[in-house]
Amino acid sequence: MAAATSVSVPAKSLAACALRGPLGIAAPAPLKHFDPRRALANLAEDVKSDSTFRIPLIDFSKFSSATSQSEKRQTADEIVNGFKEVGFIYLNKHGVPDGTVQHAFQKSAEFFRLPMEEKLAWKDPRANRGYVQIGRERATQSADAEEIAQLRAKAPDFKESMEIGRDWDKTWRNYWPQESAAPGFRHTMLEFFQTCHDLHILIMRAIAIGLDLDELFFEDKIHEQYHNLRLLNYPPIRRQLLQQEGQARAGAHSDYGTLTLLFQDSVGGLEVQNPHTKRFQPATPIPGTIVINAGDLLARWSNDILRSTLHRVVAPPAQKVSETESLTPARQSIAFFCNPNQGARISCLPTCMGAGRESKYAPVTTEEYIVGRLSATYH
Ligand SMILES: O=C(O)CCC(=O)C(=O)O
Ligand SMILES: [Fe+2]
Question: Which Pfam families does this entry report, sorted A to Z (predicted)?
């Protein structure tokens, strides 16, 4: 499995792609100029984590119902410190009702049980919508097509997924199953999408405060809902198979956008890399919480002050099914990948440079970066 690569983007090549629109927001660049090999995120350099590495548990109600600016600031600082040191936090009392999450899980499970002809296949990284069969994706940090093809052939990810984007996109439509085959699926997922978008806005306000920006700094850069709701199903699998070299339910990777909101069931298996020791440590499910991690674009935006940490999904404890065989139980999760606006130009935030801290990355648009990474991961 390829290690995280540190590659910076030459200013010239990306500047040439970023055509600025009338609102100062970069228009989508011609994709043919984009080389994902040159744009994989760095991990943060100021390594603060050590063997005491621990994903912090943060009570978000202290931010959302704060009565003073100093109260807000306290939780904002906790959140930003979590992303600086670990790159992951558990968010508690986040305002998304348990019932809403349970309902989304139930509808997701119903979707994966549908016959194949109802699950319309994912086709295009620019659309990033539809059903992804087991073995089609190989999460990795590598962007070398040949290396990924070899990895996929030898050790594909043992998972299937359903990818959903904003439903009103001018170019791409979602691949919904027939309403009669999956009653309520579409409605549930669209509501869930909106709920997650609203939470993203609130957390980005906290991050803005924690980075000494105006609380509403990100507002007009993240409002277009250029996000991706991913339903994940990890079928039960013979443990021996998962223990083969390089094999995992999802290989080590970083996420691409601002934040990922991850809802997991109680099975476990998600592991997060301690950036200091390089060891993977479990992100044990905590009921009622959302696991939230910073993605590559937030790391780039913040000049690597906030960390986009490697993570993977491995086999949780197996159940014995015979004298010689044990079965790793099925697992379900839902990841909401939050992104800045499609044409937003991600360049170093004003409070993240200066005082000897140079801007490390050339600007890139959200679409250039994300489509480049997606093209490298799927076949
Ligand atoms: O299923 C999980 O717990 C994590 C999935 C993940 O990291 C991803 O899809 O990017
Ligand atoms: Fe991920």
Answer: 2OG-FeII_Oxy, DIOX_N
Q: Which of 367, 159, 130 is nearest to 253 (CA)?
A: 159
pTM of the model: 0.83
**331-338: strand order across its sheet:** 57-59, 88-92, 290-294, 259-264, 331-338, 228-234, 160-164, 130-132
Q: At what angle do helices 366-377 and 145-154 cross, to 10 degrees?
A: 50
Structure-block tokens of residue 130: 């539809």
What count of Cα atoms within 13 Å lies in the side-chain half-sphere of residue 15?
Answer: 5
CATH (domain of 85): 2.60.120.330
Query: Domain for residue 142, yes or no?
Result: yes
Quick check: is 18 in a domain?
A: no
Res. 341: pLDDT tops 60? yes
Q: If you average pLDDT over residues 205-227, what whole number do you get?
A: 98
Q: Whose atoms come closest to the Cα of 234: which ligand?
A: 1
- Distance from the alpha carbon of residue 376 to the mean position of ligand 2, in angstroms: 15
Domain of residue 124, residue span = 41-378
Q: How many domains does the chain have?
A: 1
pLDDT in tens, 106-131: 999 999 999 999 999 999 889 999 99
> What's the CA-to-centroid distance between 25 and ligand 1, angstroms?
30
Ligand 1 pocket (Cβ < 6 Å) reads 230, 232, 250, 255, 262, 264, 270, 311, 313, 333, 335
Question: What pLDDT shows up at residue 366?
Answer: 98
State ipTM. Answer: 0.99
